[in-house]
Design brief:
alpha+beta; Ribosome-binding factor A; ribosomal small subunit binding; 132 residues; GMP Synthetase, Chain A, domain 3; RbfA_dom_sf; 3 helices; three-stranded mixed sheet
Length: 132
């Protein structure tokens, strides 16, 4: 199967899953879930559904909720997409947002530390004579 086709099927699955999770799935374990990507295998038998959460500690509950909803989601996808082979869905946590937030925090702290150190170096010690 071509890479273009698997990418296109992945994008279709992503769009449909996002709508289904928003409008049809009522499982509270799946609240606050953001789908980020769908990676479909070349043979279209497997689809990794990447998701992110602001609270990564909820990951086990989300994966359990997704596993419980997977049969319903596959039935709905089969009716909507009408493709010959519908992939088995697997939820995979995408930690890039959490890592990005942590990186932003580190950069912020480094800038604050640099600012404090630069401010300390700019002030001349009182016991040194001026070269005037």
């Amino acid at each position: 199967m071509g890479a273009r086709r698997t990418r296109r099927v992945g994008n279709l699955i992503l769009a449909e899953l996002a709508e289904l999770l928003l409008r049809r799935v009522k499982d509270p374990r799946l609240e606050g879930l953001t789908l980020t990507a769908v990676d479909v295998s070349p043979d279209l038998h497997q689809a990794k559904v990447f998701y992110s959460l602001l609270d990564p500690q909820r990951q086990p509950q989300v994966e359990a909720g997704f596993a419980a909803a997977a049969p319903f989601l596959r039935r709905e996808l089969a009716a909507r997409l009408r493709i010959k082979t519908l992939p088995r869905l697997e939820a995979v946590f995408d930690g890039s947002i959490v890592r990005g937030l942590a990186m932003d925090e580190l950069i912020k702290k480094a800038r604050q530390a640099d600012g404090e150190s630069a401010a300390g170096q700019d002030a001349a010690p009182a016991d040194e004579p001026d070269d005037a």
